[in-house]
Amino acid sequence: MLIPAGAALLGAASIAPAQAASPAADALRKLADDTWIQRRETLSTLGFTTPLVLASNDSSREIYLPVPANVPLSDASLKLDAKYLRADGGRTTMVLAVDTFPAAARAMTADQGDASLTLGIDGAPRANGFVRMSVNWTTMLSGLTMCSDPRTPGNVLRVAPGSAFSYRYDSRAIGDLRTAWGALPALTSIMVAGKDLDPKSYDTAWRIGVALERAGKHSTVTVLPQVGDKIDLSRLAVPEGLRAIPAFAALSGSGEHVLKDQAEIGALMAVGQNGADAQLRGDILVGDQKLLAGIDAAMTALQQQVQAGAPDAATAFADWRARVQPQAAGLDAQELRLAQAFGHPVILAGPQAGTAFASMFDSYWRNISGAPNLIARTAHKPGTGEDFILLKNLGGAPGSFDVMSRADWTASFDIAEVASDGRLPSELVLDVSAAPGAGRTPPVASVFLNDVLLGARSLQANGQRERITARIPPGALAAQNLLRVAFVRQPSSDNCRETPQAFPVAVLVSSHVKLAKAKDEANFTGMVRRFAAGAELLVPKSYLNDVPASLQRVIMVAASAGLPAARTRLTVVEDGKDAVPSGDFLAFDTPFKDSRGIVQVKGNTLVMNDSSAKPMLDVTGFNRLGILEVASAGGKQGVVWRSVGESRPVISKPFALSSGNVAAVASSGLLSEIDTNDSTGRDYVQDAPSITIPDILWWVVPMTIIGLFILLLVLASRARRRRMREQEQEKQKQREQE
Question: Model confidence over 401-442: pLDDT tens digits?
Fold first, then answer.
């Protein structure tokens, strides 16, 4: 009996190793089964580049944190990095609210200290795609028995831009393009095939980038890694079980590493979900044949190493490859498709789908893109021909909100959305209403456009509609515009016997912007108006061989100049040949035969002429500098970019242009903007508001009433004197008769 038992034990021992999976198979299976996507956004990546400061007695700030719409979240938390000062003492409290519900509160008792905290956030799906976070700061002096100055300027809360919002979500919940759009990170990576592109792919990529910038997202261009590229291994986390495969073993070290073969590129893409940053992955893929073939070649080379080093991992690798390599079979040139790539959902755009992307993900059509793939042959807004546009169609949501001391209502819009048929916004008509408050001082509504005060008015606060009309000067407009309405109330407490309460105000749906024919000005604002009807983008052929640097530059400058992504034609100019524009244009480093401009660039020398064609600036030694100029060529008007110096600036975000005609741009952004056509500001001085009929009626009607009243007094006085004379004459006759 002992011998058969021993034989059975030996047989089981010999079979067990054959059935056990290799470490490589286990590691690949874990990667394939891990469908969770980790996101971490800071306030700085969401546009809050400076600290948020709350300093009044009762102040608050609302921050909308983007999340995928209708997708459950997991492990969502907010790490608030904040400090406070409490020089004036009193009761000082910070309250955090999530989706209008109070979630955390803290009383500040020291003279200064740390107000940081970590707050867990409910993982329920958000239909609007945002987690609404409110920071409320309340400070009040205690022990007061009579009315006194309650202000506490020394009690301040400071929220740092490094405050972070993190969460996870299951990638299987992303089932259509609309949800995939909402799941894009704040800094979205556009991946292209390589450092040299064909004109169609280049055209698609720049349109996608401009569309992202117009939608409030930021973009960066990445290329598919190539053999010979350097990568930073410290950003990768290679599972221990995969290090038996040569390609994965090469990526498991530290420091810089040069990719030696296609298998290492495949390994880099395979572990991209496991710690690689967006420079090694793509959120939107320009799916031309070169990109798709490059991904396939890398994954095939990696598969061969896996089969040689761990044959039992072939099935697990096939499952994981389905999540790394996008399924592009039958991809139409103009198609937008939801796909899996590098372990997470991506938007796969056909090589000619740039116009479709810009149109379908515009705010007008975005909500109907709830399908896994779309082919948009035509998608544009309907033309109305009206001379006004409602603010609700520009992103401003009408509604009511409470105001105790101060509150702001904002709406942002792209100038291309309102500029049409040679017209620009000329007047803002704002309809508001306010409930009566306890105090006698009326609330005040002030209207700002790009921080320029357009007008203000004291409201009657009777709950009825009140209209504020404000003229928009041309110099106040930019490519991206922010409209802000500030409501200010004077809190009243009935001689300190009552607690001040908030009262509602409302911005009504009838608020609108009036359009009027604009002057044909040779400046950046004038070119934005001209570009709205369509434009031509001129780039030299060398730009197509300098990706991603040239593509990033084109995207940021085009977004700053107001070039419409859906109504622009790309023209590639052969190197060394003169460009011949066919319409309003934006040109990059291309020569013109008959250009009329004041800027001349040769190497690192910049020459700028005055109106008499004499140099007013002639400097040599510039580097990493770009000059934008409004110029004409071939009878057409446009904006010309010229690079100054051996190296070109690296532009990471758009910049604001206004009414100048020459601008200097560096890697840090806009350095200077000048208007050589009106250097003294003559147009601003002469551009005084004209007298309108309401202005005339404002003083003519009262003066007419006063004049009529005086006339009646004069006539009455004359009648009285005449009657007195008649009576005197009658008395005189009576005396004579006697």
Answer: 888 777 888 888 877 777 766 677 889 999 999 998 777 788
The Cα 193–Cα 73 span in angstroms is: 33
The closest of 557, 200, 244 to 349, measured between CA atoms, is: 200
Q: What is the pLDDT of residues 283-300, one digit of tens each?
A: 999 999 999 999 999 999
Angle between helices 262-270 and 289-309 (to 10 degrees): 90
Q: Are residues 437 and 303 in the same domain?
A: no
Same domain, 196 and 308: yes
Rounded average pLDDT over 189-195: 94
Task: Give the domain extent around 443.
Answer: 388-516
Looking at the structure, tell me whether residues 222 and 310 fall in a common domain: yes
CA dist., res. 46 & res. 66, Å (int):
9
- Pair 160, 178 in one domain: no
* 9 vs 27, residue with greater confidence: 27
Which residues neighbour 393 within 8 Å (Cβ) at sequence distance 6 or greater?
A: none
Return d(Cα 344, Cα 168) in angstroms, integer.
12
Is 60 exceeded by the pLDDT of residue 687?
no
| Angle at alpha carbon of residue 165, lines to 119 and 138, rounded to 5° | 50
| Count helices and strands in the chain by DSSP H and E runs | 14, 40
Question: 333, 350, 375 — which closes off a domain?
Answer: 375
d(CA 400, CA 382): 29
The pTM score is: 0.84
Let me know: does 90 contact 141? Beta carbons within 8 Å: yes
Q: Are 339 and 331 in contact (CB under 8 A)?
A: no
Which tokens is 214 given? Answer: 């117009």
Into how many domains does the chain fold? 4
Cα(25)–Cα(170) distance, integer angstroms: 23
Q: Judge if 509 and 531 occupy the same domain.
A: no
CA distance 271 to 342: 8
pLDDT band at 384 (very low <50, low <70, confident <90, very high): low
Instruction: Check whether residue 326 and residue 420 sit in a common domain.
Output: no
Residues 65-116 pLDDT 10s: 999 999 999 999 999 999 999 988 888 999 999 998 999 999 999 999 999 9
Same domain, 478 and 559: no
Does the residue 153 lie in any domain? yes
- Take residue 652 and report the two structure tokens written for it: 């990471």
The CA–CA distances, whole Å, from 699 to 470, 690, 694, 706, 707 equal 19, 15, 9, 11, 12
Q: Domain boundary residue among 459, 485, 516?
A: 516
Q: Judge if 218 and 337 occupy the same domain.
A: yes
Burial of 332 (0-12, 13-18, 19+ CB in 10 A): middle
* Residue 10: inside a domain: no
